[in-house]
């Protein structure tokens, strides 16, 4: 049946058969109750040919002109209405004066054929023709509207994906330059920590090349990325900066957009290293729960210098695209510290079992 419906000609034939069957079914109550004759030959010789001759020019000739707002298109529509009346009247006359007496044995009308009289009689066949044509026009318009909606949705999703890729590209060069600068400093000083720095850098590059291209990654992988980055920064800065890390909760139950948490850590290190401070420090705290995820980054900064929230502009854009209505980002500047809090929550809660699906998977584009 599906193969039959895939054929365009077969679909059209089935539609017109269905129209004729409905016409017959409509006549059955009057036929069985009042004994009215069935209008079968009229359906075959008048109504069906009239629909075929008038509907297809409307759908494939006149309707595109109307949709494209071509000049005088409405005059064409008026002409179609008059033409449909002429076709219906002529088919009725053909049945009454030619086909009926010759093939069906029905007597011909006693009066001579008068075209004007035929045109002035509004027949049921003409009204049915207008009804069928209206239904088909509405169906075609709805199909075109649905197609435009799908195309618009596809373009919006592609635009969204392009914007996300651009935002990630804005983050990655800064991240790579900072990391390479750390490695350069260590190798210049011939530090024994250089091999460890190379291992951390290789892990970071592997993440950037592979995991960062995915729509979502397991949260433990993102946490491991933060550990590698913090380790590299500690190798560069040494004990001059006090760093505290805390990752709690069922991390393996969650997924998250790649490189989403790293900019907060980069921004914190920038605050504690680009300003003169006696005892710079920063703290990372990630708490994963069954229904939510909270990430806090607090860092020290001199009271005289206000933190620049514009540094997190790209992150705010990514969050707005990836988690609309599912995130909350707050920044609080105290007298000697700067706190950034990111709270994420899913649309639907995770299941109780340990094999529940990730909470923060980015939806795939709907084609």
Write up this protein.
- This protein has 367 residues and is an alpha+beta fold.
- The chain has two domains: 2-149, no CATH class; 152-344, Histidine kinase-like ATPase, C-terminal domain (Heat Shock Protein 90, 2-Layer Sandwich), CATH 3.30.565.10.
- The chain has helices spanning 2-6, 8-34, 40-67, 73-104, 115-120, 124-188, 194-209, 219-237, 262-273, 313-322, and strands spanning 217-218, 242-248, 255-256, 281-288, 293-300, 327-333, 337-344.
- A hairpin with a 4-residue loop joins strand 4 and strand 5 (293-300).
- Helix 3 packs antiparallel against helix 4 and helix 3 crosses helix 6.
- The longest helix is centred in the middle third of the chain and has 65 residues, at 124-188.
């Amino acid at each position: 049946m599906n193969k039959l419906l895939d054929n365009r000609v077969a679909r059209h034939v089935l539609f017109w058969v269905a129209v004729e069957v409905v016409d017959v079914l409509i006549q059955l109550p009057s036929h069985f109750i009042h004994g009215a004759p069935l209008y079968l030959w009229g359906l075959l010789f008048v109504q069906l040919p009239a629909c075929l001759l008038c509907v297809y020019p409307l759908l494939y000739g006149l309707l595109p002109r109307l949709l494209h707002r071509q000049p005088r298109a409405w005059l064409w529509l008026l002409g179609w209405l008059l033409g449909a009346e002429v076709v219906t009247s002529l088919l009725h006359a053909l049945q009454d004066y030619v086909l009926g007496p010759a093939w069906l044995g029905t007597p011909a009308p006693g009066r001579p054929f008068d075209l004007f009289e035929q045109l002035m009689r509004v027949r049921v066949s003409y009204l049915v023709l207008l009804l069928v044509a209206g239904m088909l026009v509405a169906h075609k318009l709805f199909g075109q509207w649905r197609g435009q909606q799908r195309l618009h949705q596809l373009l919006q999703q592609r635009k969204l994906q392009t914007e996300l890729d651009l935002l990630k590209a804005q983050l990655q060069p800064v991240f790579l330059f900072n990391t390479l600068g750390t490695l350069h400093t260590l190798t210049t000083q011939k530090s024994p920590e250089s091999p460890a720095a190379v291992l951390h850098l290789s892990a970071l590059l592997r993440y950037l090349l592979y995991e960062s291209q995915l729509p979502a990654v397991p949260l433990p992988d993102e946490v491991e990325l933060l550990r590698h980055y913090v380790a590299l920064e500690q190798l560069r800065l040494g004990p001059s900066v006090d760093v505290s890390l805390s990752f709690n909760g069922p991390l393996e139950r969650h997924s998250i957009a790649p490189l989403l948490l790293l900019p907060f850590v980069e921004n914190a290190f920038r605050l504690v290293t680009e300003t003169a401070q006696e005892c710079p420090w920063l703290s990372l705290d990630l708490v994963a729960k069954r229904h939510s995820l909270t990430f806090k980054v607090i860092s020290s900064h001199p009271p005289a210098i206000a933190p620049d929230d514009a540094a997190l502009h790209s992150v705010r854009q990514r969050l707005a695209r990836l988690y609309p209505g599912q995130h909350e980002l707050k920044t609080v500047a105290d007298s000697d510290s700067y706190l950034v809090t990111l709270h994420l929550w899913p649309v639907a809660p995770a299941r109780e079992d340990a094999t529940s699906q990730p909470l923060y998977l980015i939806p795939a584009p709907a084609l």
